[in-house]
Amino acid sequence: MTNTSTVFHGRKTIALLGACCLFLSAVEYLIPKPLPFLRLGLANLPLIIALDIFPFGSYMILVCLKILGQALITGTLFSYIFLFSAAGTFSSAMTMFFLRRMCASVPGRESISFIGISTAGAMVSNTAQLALAWFFIFKENVRYIVPPFLAAGLVTGIALGVFCEVFSRKSRWYLMNTERMKADE
């Protein structure tokens, strides 16, 4: 395969996964929330799936598409909520990417599962958002939202990870794209 066709395929895959982020953001926006700050994180599914498909630069483009698209869909682009979303997504994405790469690079060791990756990403995202909530809004009163926030992140992190594990094992599309990534390395 030529380098040009690889770049074109990478752009198409970024566009596809970016569109999935937007669609899942819209779906999540329609789901009623028991508390305003609790979200399922459905738009993170394409980010988790992309961990084995893209190199770092392409992965970060997808992360930026997810952040901006989600802000446009929810109408939060020019609000403090955008800062919370961006901090949570960037910290989560960086953690998930480096955990996946770090564990895969140790000889004789299997890569960490998507369940572990997703849960770690959810916890890091929630911690970043709680730190911003403490700094900008709630100060010491943030302790009242910590338990439900972290519990929701744990549950949704595990659920999204389970979905990604099943998807990665059964999807021919995923297999084809991860093999392409390995061939490009």
Alpha-carbon distance between the two ends: 13 Å
Unreliable stretches covering 5 or more consecutive residues: none
Give the ordered list of helices and strands: HHHHHHH
Which band does the percent of strand residues land in? under 5%
Helix content: over 70%
**CATH topology type:** Arp2/3 complex 21 kDa subunit ARPC3
**Distinct helical segment count:** 7
Q: So what's the CATH class?
A: Mainly Alpha
**What is the strand tally?**
0
> Whole-number radius of gyration?
17 Å
What characterizes the major β-sheet?
Answer: none
The helix/strand class is mainly alpha
Mean pLDDT over the full residue set: 88
- CATH architecture, by name, is Orthogonal Bundle
Count of spatially separate domains:
1
What's the assembly state of these chains?
Answer: single chain
The shape, in one word, is globular
Features:
Arp2/3 complex 21 kDa subunit ARPC3, globular, mainly alpha, about 180 residues
Could you explain the architecture of this structure?
This protein is an all-alpha fold and 185 residues long. The protein has a single domain, classed as Arp2/3 complex 21 kDa subunit ARPC3, CATH 1.10.1760.20. The chain is built from seven helices and no strands. Helix 1 packs parallel to helix 3, helix 3 runs antiparallel to helix 4 and helix 4 packs antiparallel against helix 5. The longest helix has 28 residues. The mean pLDDT is 88.
